[in-house]
Design a protein that fits this description.
The complex is a heterodimer of chains A (about 425) and B (about 200).
Chain A (H helix, E strand, L loop, with lengths): L11 H8 L1 H9 L2 H10 L8 E6 L6 H8 L2 H4 L3 E6 L3 H10 L4 E5 H9 L8 E6 L5 E6 H5 L5 H10 L5 E4 L5 H12 L9 E4 L5 H7 L4 E5 L2 H7 L3 E6 L10 E6 H6 L1 H20 L1 H11 L9 H8 L2 E3 L5 E3 L17 H13 L9 H8 L2 H10 L12 E2 L5 E2 L4 H5 L7
Parallel strand pairs in A: 1-2, 1-3, 6-7, 6-8
Antiparallel strand pairs in A: 3-10, 4-10, 5-8, 5-9, 11-12, 13-14
Chain B lengths: L5 H7 L4 E5 L3 H13 L3 E5 L3 H11 L3 E5 L5 H10 L5 E2 L1 H6 L2 H9 L2 E5 L5 H49 L3 H15 L3 H15 L1
Parallel strand pairs in B: 1-2, 1-3
Antiparallel strand pairs in B: 3-5, 4-5
Helix pairs in contact in B: 2-7, 3-4, 7-8, 7-9, 8-9
Classes of the chains: A alpha/beta (about 425), B alpha/beta (about 200).
């Protein structure tokens, strides 16, 4: 349906006007108040003004929270109500039954629901990517003391001291599961056979590792930095070192929501793009963001724990510190937020690789159905965001394998280590 | 993870084993009693994520009932997806394609994980019992909260009356009338106006 938005869009003229770069330039000359009035007066006015957006307490919920906190939402004629959720399962259920309209959600989860992996199946929509990078794999201090500080040394230790090793991630179809599996497999460890995998909610990761029966986990920040601050774990690898500028959380909704409220979906996307732009614009903005989201209503941790890695200041818990230019990004001149088809397809290929899907789907068709590229383009124009030339991109992952989205079936079947 | 022949057993319908995962001890007890009375075998666990996998492997439940807002739900999702013969999330509602039913069940605060191939009617009865008990429990808590806040309101009105009687030299009836008039004039609840009087009173000493 993303292919023909005109069918449900009465104001074609106005939209195509807005779409052209020239129009964006003209619009930028118009004062905000006037522009808001123009949006509200036209038939592009959001059908639903109040938009409930679910989130999980993680640093990468920031652009959703800041869109509301800075009042960027009002500029686009909507009111974003961020709603804190206790689990990804709850985010999924509330999206499906309409208790929330959209959510800060794991990329892979949206595709899992689209394909009905281990649960309810619904047509889903990815409105935009919320962030790249900024997750990591933590190994317990105990393991580090025995020399396991990266992939190779972990694999070596597991051979030398054979026992059941337990690793946690955050959702069976989610991004952290896929980063963890990819990294282990790249180091010759089969996550389906050689280890025990469990799912633990992000805010509980650190506490669970402290208890001592978890060897490692993959989760979003600030929970890897927190393990270092608490002296119970070390960072073995950041996810940007597994895949530089990898897609992570998305702004997800059901396809039904987007069909019913296309203008609201567009306004929401535009507001969150603009918030992402604001976060990435300066160091001081990022510090302000960290202060806002550290509050109990959001991530509920100290500002220090959040802002180190937001600013790219990394330490691994073993004395090494570095400045990482590939820290968590929320806009990246429009390259972060664009919902690339190749990104969506990648999660399908990994679900297939690890046996979550028994057959190869029509990868590209599914990605085109889920990722709302048309709505995104309109929203990006409204938010004056740059658009990439192609809806696909090419990346080289940690094992040296290149993913360009061109032959997903072959790619999915190409891995030596699989389920 | 070892896998036993659970599905065959469940299909025979001899008995069904329900695992109740709840951080609220009171509610878990209410639910356990109700389900046991209906003839189900019930195990209650307050298990945190790490222990939960072990509990599920040991108990091998046919149905798991859990609070929709419990963070431990993601752990169950994982077991459902990865542990092939373990419970699947809310299969019957997904198949029923009745969003309204699902919505009502969820608003009651119940999420259920059900082994594939169970008799839908029997699962439904378990979910219904769970919903009823969850709602009843919530109702009791709401009543308690309402009673508490009513008591607090009455106290504040009494204090405001006392302040007015002292400051304005009026009797109790007149003090109450003054409060009531103020509330009506401002279109605010009596308790709120009384609270303002008390706050102001403490300021003026």
């Amino acid at each position: 349906m993303s292919e023909k938005p005109d069918a449900r869009e009465p104001s074609t003229d106005r939209r195509s006007f807005l779409k052209s770069a020239g129009a964006a330039a003209i619009m930028s000359l118009v004062p905000d108040a006037v522009r808001t009035a123009a949006w509200a007066a036209g038939s592009d006015a959001p059908e639903k003004k109040e938009v409930k957006v679910g989130f999980i307490p993680l640093t990468d919920c920031a652009s959703v929270v800041m869109a509301a906190a800075l009042g960027i939402d009002e500029k686009y004629g909507i009111k974003i109500v961020p709603t804190k959720e206790a689990s990804w399962a709850s985010v999924r259920d509330k999206l499906i039954n309409g208790d929330i309209d959209a959510a800060h959600v794991l990329y892979g989860l949206v595709y899992g629901v689209q394909m009905g992996v281990g649960g309810p199946r619904r047509d889903m929509a990815v409105l935009m990517t919320l962030n790249n990078n900024g997750q990591a794999i933590t190994l317990s201090k105990k393991l580090a003391d025995k020399g396991a500080v990266d992939g190779a040394s972990l694999a070596a230790l597991m051979k030398k001291e054979a026992r059941e090793y337990t690793f946690a991630q955050t959702f069976p179809t989610g991004t952290h599961a896929m980063w963890l599996y990819y990294w282990l497999a790249a180091n010759g460890v089969n996550p389906m056979k050689d280890i025990k995998v469990i799912t633990v909610p992000p805010p509980q990761m650190v506490a669970n590792m402290r208890v001592g029966n978890m060897d490692g986990y993959c989760v979003g920040e600030p929970w890897n930095h927190r393990a270092i601050a608490d002296g119970i774990g070390i960072t073995a690898i950041t996810t940007q070192d597994i895949w530089k500028d990898h897609p992570e959380k998305v702004l997800g909704a059901t396809a039904e929501f987007v069909q019913k409220y296309p203008n609201t979906a567009r306004a929401l996307t535009a507001a969150v793009i603009e918030a992402g732009k604001w976060i990435d614009a300066s160091l001081s903005n990022r510090l302000k963001m960290a202060e806002t989201i550290a509050a109990p209503a959001y991530v509920n941790t100290s500002v220090d724990v959040i802002n180190q890695r937001i600013l790219g200041r990394y330490q691994n818990g073993l004395g090494k510190t570095w400045d990482d230019p590939n820290h968590m990004k929320f806009y990246g001149d429009g390259a972060v937020t664009f919902p690339y088809y190749s990104d969506g397809m990648w999660f399908l290929t990994q679900h297939r690789r690890w046996g979550l899907m028994k057959q190869d789907p029509d990868y590209l068709a599914v990605a085109k159905q889920v990722n709302q590229v048309e709505i995104y383009k309109q929203a990006a124009t409204a938010a004056k965001a740059s658009l990439p030339k192609e809806p696909m991109r090419t990346s080289k992952l940690v094992d040296g394998v290149v993913w360009d989205g061109k032959d997903p079936k072959k790619y999915a079947g190409s891995f030596a280590v699989h389920a | 993870m070892h896998v036993a022949v659970r599905q065959g057993m469940a299909l025979e319908g001899l008995h069904m084993r329900v695992l109740v995962v709840d951080e609220s001890r009171g509610r878990a007890r209410v639910l356990r009693d109700a389900l046991a009375q209906a003839g189900y075998e019930v195990v209650v666990s307050r298990a945190a994520p790490l222990a939960l996998a072990g509990v599920v492997a040991r108990v091998r439940p046919d149905v798991i009932v859990i609070d929709t807002e419990s963070p431990s739900r993601d752990t169950l999702e994982h077991l459902a997806v990865m542990g092939r013969d373990l419970p699947r999330p809310i299969v019957m509602f997904a198949d029923d394609a009745a969003p309204e039913t699902l919505r009502n069940v969820m608003r009651a605060g119940v999420a259920a994980y059900v082994v594939d191939g169970l008799d839908p009617a029997r699962v439904k009865s378990i979910i219904e019992v769970a919903c009823a008990r969850f709602e009843e429990y919530q109702g009791l808590r709401n009543e308690l909260a309402a009673a508490k806040s009513k008591l607090a309101e009455r106290k504040v009105v009494e204090r405001a009356k006392g302040l007015l009687m002292k400051a304005r030299g009026v009797d109790e009836g007149e003090a109450y009338e003054m409060l009531r008039k103020l509330a009506m004039d401002r279109g605010k609840p009596l308790a709120e106006v009384a609270q303002q009087v008390v706050d102001l009173g403490s300021l003026l000493g």
